[in-house]
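P.,

For your records, the input lines for the assembly:
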Amino acid sequence: MGSSSVAADLTEVRAAAELLGFGLQRRSRPVEGGDYRALLDRYRSELRFRDVVDTMAEGLGLEVLGTPRSGLVLAPEPGGPFATRLTDFRAMDQAERLVFGLVLIGIAAYAYPQDVDFDDPETKLVDLVKVDEFLRSAIDTLRAQEGGEGTPEERARAAAEVYADMPQLITTQTGRRGRGCTLKAIEDALGWLVDQGAAREATSLGPDVYQLTDRFRLLVADSAGGAALDALRALRSGGPGAAA
Amino acid sequence: MTSAPVVSPAADATARARWRALTLTDPISRLVRNAAHAGIDDEAFDLRQLALAAVDLVVGSMGFAREATLDEVADDLTRLALRMRPELAHQARDVAQVVLKGLLNEAHEHRRFTYWFADLSGDQVVREPYSFRLLSLREAEYGPVLTASDQAITLFLHGLDVDIEDADRALAHVLQRQLDDRRFDAAARTAAQAERTSVGIAATLAELLDATRRDVGSHDWLVDVPDRLSAARRHVEERIAEDDRFLEHVQGGLDTETGADVRATSGRIVDLLRRVRQVHLDLEKRLVGAREVFLAAQVRQRLARRRRLRMLAVGEDVLLPTLGLPREQALEVGTAFADRALGVTVPRLVRFDDLLDQLWAPPRQRETVEPLAEDEGLDEIEEPDVQRYPPEVVAAAGEVLAVARADAAGAPLSALLDRCPDDEVAELVILTTLWAFAPDPAADSEEPDDSVELAAGLEAVDRDGAAGVLDHRLARGRDLVLRPLPAERAVTDEDERVMVGG
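C-alpha cells returned:
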C-alpha cells in the first residue's frame, strides 16, 4: 500500500490468466460451483484482482466490456491478435459487405433503441421478418444522410440503396432462402452473431426468432455510435430523438 | 377530494388495486384472442390453462439453483398441449409458442404490457398508466432463462399470503402455504413433483456414473460433471432439510386433526413425503459415491501415460484405421488429430465499431497504392538484406569460380576452396557447387540465393571419387569437379543430370 506500483502475486496472475482463458472460450459458462464462476465473482468483488485481470487483458490486446451472468465479455483492440479481420468472414463483395454492416446496425437499433436498453439485462428477442420490415422503413432516413464521398454517411446511403434494391425473399429449389434477398442477409448476419456468442436461436419461439445475448448488448453499448446507428435508433424509439 | 365518489368511498378505496388485479389477467385473454389468428382453436386447446402452467413452471423453478430455461418451459408446454389433444400432435408446439409469445408480449415487441387507469378522484380525469411484465427472458450462465415478474407471481399465487418479493423461496412458500391453507391435495401434488424431480436426478446420475466406469472419456469431467454433481448435491441438501420440516409439520397436524378425510389425506402426504425423503437420502449416498468415482477417474487419468504420436506409426496405427472407420467416428479422430497438430489457435473477437469500419470501408483505389509499393521497394535496396551475402563476398566468390569457368575440364572444388580468402566466400562457393550439382527448380521462384546466379553456366560432377576426397572446415566428402556447362546442354535437362549423377 502507498506505493504507486502494485506488485501482483504470481498466483494472482495465474488466476487472472485463467479467467481470461475462460472469457475467450465461448463455450465455457460460469456455472455455480465452477472455477470460472469463482474467478468471475472474484473479478466482480476484488478490486485488486480486477486490476490484474484488466492489465493482463490490455497487454493481450483485449478489453473487459462487462461481466454479465453469462460470463466475461471481452473486446479486442483493433489490429491485436484477437481482432476479427475481414478475411475471417466468408468472401463478400462490396455490396454484401455494405448490407452486412447495415443489417448489424439495424439489429442493434431494433433491439436497443434507447440508452436505458443498454443497461437492461432483459434479453431482447428479434424476429427476422421484423428486422427486415424495420430496415425497409428506415431506407428513406438513411438516404437522407448527408456526407461526402467515403464518409460513413455516404456508406450508409450506399448500403440503403443496395438494400432497397434487393428483394425480400428469393427461395431456392429446396425451399430455403437464397442468396441475394434481404431475409437471407439478415439470417446470415444473425447466424454470424450466433457464432460469435452474441445471439442464440430461440427455436422454442419459432423458426426465425433469435435472442440477443448480453454479449451483443455490451458490444453495442461499447460502440461510440455512428450517424447511421444513431438515426436508426432515433427512428426506432420514435421519441423526440427522431427529430434531433 | 372535491368530486363525488365513483361508486362508494369504500369501493373506491380499493378500486385501483382491484383494477390492477383484473388487468393482470388481461394478457392471457389477449393471447387467447390472438391465437385464433394463428389458427389455433381455443376450444381444442385450453390456452388459459397452458398460460397458467407456464407461469407455474417458471415460478416453480425460481427457488432453485437452476431456473427454467426457455426451451424447457416450451417443451413442457408442448407436452401439456399434446395431452390436451393427442390427435392434433402437429399443432402442439405451435400452441406452446403462442402461449409463451403471448406471455412475453410478442405482439408489442416484448415490451411491458401497458394499461390505462382512469383516475376519477380529482376534478379532471387523469389517465394513469400501469405497466407490468408477466414473464421475461434473461441470460443465465446455462442459457436463456425465464423469470416471472412480481406481478406474475402475485397473479399465480393469488390468494396466498406469501412474500412476493422473495422469489427465491417461492416454491417452498407454495408448499408451506398449501399446508397452512390445508390444501392437502395441492400439497401432495407439490410433494409428488419434488419426488419426480429427485427420481429424475437419481436416474441421470446413475447413468452418468455407469458411463464413467465404462469409459472415463465419455463425459466432460472438467466442467460438465462437477457442475451436475454440485447441482445435484445442492438440490438434495436443500430437499432433505425441507422434507424433515414438512414431515414434522404434517405429522403435527395429523396428531391434532379430527376430520376423517383430512386424516386420510394427511396420511397420504406423510407416506409421500417419507418416500421422497428416502429418494433424497439414497441420492445423497449415491452422490457421495459419485465423488469417489470422479476422483478415482481423475487420478486414473492423471496416472495414465499420455500417448504421444511418436509412439505410434502414423500411417499404420493412425491413418489406415481412420480410413476404415465410419464417417462420424473418423471425423472425431480426424478432428482430435488436427486440433492437436495445428497447435494454438486464436479466437477472434469483435468490436462493433471496428467491425463496421471494416465492412463499410470505402473501396480501395489502386492507382494511389501501387506507386507507394514501388517506393518501398527502392528503400529496400538501399539497405543491404541481411539474408544475402555482402556484394564483396559475392564478387570474391565470382572470381574464384571464374577459375572453373576458364577451363573446359573444370576444377575440383577442393582446389577452388583453397583459393577462397575467407570462410564466407568458401561457403558461397560450396553452395554454388551444390546448386550446380543438383539445382532445386522450386527455389528459383522463391528467394533467389546468390548461389543461383553464380552457378549459371556451370555444372558439378562427381566422378565416383576420382577427383579425390574433399577435406575442408566447411565441407567434407567426395570431391566434386566444377566445370563449364557444355553449350548444347546449357538448357538443363533433368534426365541427363540423373545420368551424370548415376
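Two observations worth noting. Residues 159-171, 366-382, 490-502 of chain B have pLDDT under 50 and may be disordered. Strands of chain B lie at 113-119, 126-132, 135-140, 143-148, 411-412, 458-461, 469-471, 476-478, 481-484.

Regards
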